[in-house]
Write a structure and sequence with these properties.
- The structure is a single chain.
- This protein folds into two domains: 7-327, Thiamin diphosphate (ThDP)-binding fold, Pyr/PP domains (Rossmann fold); 329-362, no CATH class.
- Helix 1 packs across helix 8 (230-245).
- Helices cover 43% and strands 9% of the residues.
- The strands form two sheets. A five-stranded parallel β-sheet has the order 1-2-3-7-6, sandwiched between helices.
- Residues 1-22 and 354-362 have low confidence and may be disordered.
- By secondary structure, the chain is an alpha/beta fold.
- Strand 4 (196-197) and strand 5 (200-201) form a beta hairpin.
- Bound molecules: thiamine diphosphate (TPP).
- Thiamine diphosphate (TPP) is lined by residues 84-86, 134-136, 163-167, 170, 192, 194, 196-198, 263.
- The site of thiamine diphosphate (TPP) has 18 residues, from strand 2 and strand 4.
Amino acid sequence: MATTVEPTRIAADVLMEKQSPEPDGALYRRLYSYMLKCRMVEERIRVLYRQGRFAGNYFAAVGQEATEVGVTLDLLPEDTIAPSHRNFVTHIMKGTPLPLMFAQIYGRKTSPDQGRSAPAHCGYAPLNVITPSSTIAAQLNVGTGIALAYTMRRRPNVVVALSGEGSTSLGFWHEAVNFAGVRRLPILIVVENNGYAESVPVALQTAVDDISVKAQAYGIPGVSVDGNDVVAVYAAAREAIDRARKGEGPTLLECRTYRWYGHSEIDPAKYRDPAEVAYWKARDPITAMELRLESAQLWTERWKRELESEFTREIDEAIAFAESSPAPEGKEALDEVYSFSIRERELERKVWEPRFTVGRAE
Ligand SMILES: Cc1ncc(C[n+]2csc(CCOP(=O)(O)OP(=O)(O)O)c2C)c(N)n1
C-alpha cells in the first residue's frame, strides 16, 4: 500500500502529463509567489527579533517553503489546518490577514488570541487554523477530532495536519494516525522531515529511512516526496486531499526538506556541518522554481522585483498596525479563557487585580 520508491517523480510527472503540453503557468506562478511571500515574512520576523522589537521566540521554516505552500494551496475556508510551531506561514495560505499575524508576533491585543500566546503559536478561528499546541504532535490529535466531526456532520471538508519528523516518535502521534486510519477520516498527515528535532538528527530519531512507511502500520497510504520541489509536494498533497474529500480516507505524506536556521531564533545550530547547510541552501526551493518557471518563460527578474515590492509594502503596513496596537492589560489575562458567571468573574478579578495593577505579574 505504501509508495516509497521515488514517488516524488511519479506524482510530479502525473501532474505534468495532465497539463500537457504546457505546464499550468498560473498555478506554478502562484506556488512561486506564495513561497516568496512566506520567505519574506519569516526573514522580516527574524530581523524584528534581532532588533528586540518583540518578546518571545520564533521557529522559522525558511528553506521549507515548498512544503508549507504545496500542502496548503487551495484549501477551502471551511477546511482546517492543524499547524505545528514551525508552520506560522500557513496562515498566509489560509488567508489570515497579515496585520493580525504580526499583531500575534508582537503579542498585541489586536491579535487573534488577544496577545495571549507565544509569537508563533497562533490560531485563527474564522478560517479554521487551530492554535498549535506547545506539546509537539498534539495538533494531530485535535486535527483528527476535527476530521471526525467533518465525517459525522457529512461535510466535504479536510484537515491538513503538519508535524516534524521528531514528533513521529511520540505516542499520541501514532494514536492520532491509527484513529484516522480506523475511521478513514478526511485528513492529510504531513510530516516535514527537516532532518533535526531541535539538535537530534533523524538517524537518532527513527530506524526507518522513509517516515512514510509508518503508514503501513495503520492501513493508510504513505508517500515520500522531495519536500523542496513545490510541484511534487503540491501534486502529492492534491491527490491525497482530493481522495480525503471524496471519503477515501487519510494519507501520510513525508516531505523531505531542511531548515536553514536553528530550531528557533535562540539556537545557533552548531550541531550541523556547514557543508550540509551549504548543500541544502544550494537546493533552495525558491531558486529551483525560478529556474523552472524561467525555462518555461514564466518568470523574469522584473516580475520578481514587483512581487517583492508588493510584499514589502504589505509587511510594512502589517508591522505598523502591530506596533500601533495596544498591549493587553494584565487584568484581562483571564477574560474569555474560562466560562464564568458575571459574579464569579468579579470575584476572580478581585483576586487577580492587585497583582496586575502595574500591568504585569509581580
Ligand atoms: C511532548 C514534547 N516534547 C518535547 C518538546 C520540546 N520540543 C519543542 S519543539 C521540539 C522539536 C520538534 O521536532 P520536530 O517534530 O522534528 O519538528 P521541527 O521543530 O523540526 O519542525 C521539541 C523536542 C515539546 N514541546 N513537547
